[in-house]
Amino acid sequence: MANNKSEYDMIGIDYVELTENSWRLPIENYTLHKCMLQSLLDEHELLTGKRVLDLACGHGLYTRELKALNCDYILGVDISSEMIKLANDIEYQEPKGIEYQVADAKQLKPPETLFDLVTAFYLLCYARTRDELLEMAGSIHTQLGENKKFIGFTTNIMNYDEKFDKKKYGISRQVNISLEERPIPDGTKVFINLYNKDEKKICTFTNYHFSAVTYEQVFKESGFKTFQWIPFQCDPRASNKELYDQFLQCPNGIGIIATK
Prior knowledge:
This protein has helices at 2-18, 25-36, 61-67, 81-93, 130-143, 212-221, and strands at 51-55, 73-78, 99-102, 115-121, 144-155, 171-174, 189-195, 201-208, 226-230, 253-259.
């Protein structure tokens, strides 16, 4: 994870610019709130009384969204000190009662009180080997209470065949192997390019591919009882829904729900 840490320490504020790109609200945010979180919410559609751990929290984008659902306690963890600094700066300016910590998600100690929900939005895609992926899943398992859930996003392992220019969406992906060679080998590097609103590339970082079978096996080996893939969906009420039809042919991410 050292390379991952240094990548994010260097890109810092540039990465935050991606959060302003338009696809995240009607697609990623909609998928999270309407397709993944719903079964965990109370009758008021809140997380009242819940303890939440947000791994790979970055500058706290989703940490703040989860806190807004009225969870009792939330801890955001990221390996990048620069990202945690940005998160703490936002917390200082607009206090919400969120705690942040610089730590490697693979090396977390078991908590004194287990969490009701663990989230990780784009953590698992940084595992370089199957062993690292297993470490991450195992660490998540140790943080959760019995019958509690993990939800997260990872890079969309189902499809890398981007036959159209995705710069207008602020993100593109590429692998340096022939997509005709299937299956794609586990551990294959996936290069993520981020673009600003002017479609100028602002940074590139590296993810790693693992097959759906590998993900499912690793979570089972870690002790999880269930594992489910959640494809990205677009908010049917989005005013410019047609803009995202092409994006959804090859979305950059996919959701995961797993139960301890």
